[in-house]
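Check this:
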Amino acid sequence: MITTDTQDRVAGWFAGRLPEQWQDAPAEVTVDREEVVVRLSVPDVELAADATDAARAEARAGRAKAFREDTREQRMTIATEAEHRFETKVSWGVTVGEHRELWTHVAAPVMTRLRQPQRLVLDTLVDSGVARSRSEALAWCVRLVGQHEGDWLAELRDAMGAVADVRGRGPAA
């Protein structure tokens, strides 16, 4: 369980370590058991008022690609420092306007046991072509829950973090 203190320490370190010119807004830092994801927000592209949505989307994707290439060496240096300090992998991402992407992030395997009704859900997704495998179908389901229950999950994580903080200050600490 990642505590609020751990999240705050990691986010604080990145806030002090990242170059100011990389941030149109404060970096979004997310910590879990396997990795730290740092999502940087860079200035949106400026296009003519009559630019199409397709042109705007491609311009933002291009800005993200350029940022990734231009900052690669310095990001890797910062990631190495953070990995030694916090003993976990660091992944990067960027937000440009409405365009969001992650680069080289961890895809951790998760084992689960499912009963037939749950397996049938996954098999329906596979058989219909929504997913190529049960594993991909399960990942699709998890993404869907995350999109539709984001506020509830955030509240639950905050509550779990508070419990972990109190437990950490207990008699065994």
Notes: The two ends are 16 Å apart (CA to CA). The mean pLDDT is 91. The helical segments are 4-17, 53-86, 116-127, 134-148, 150-168. The longest strand covers residues 35-42.
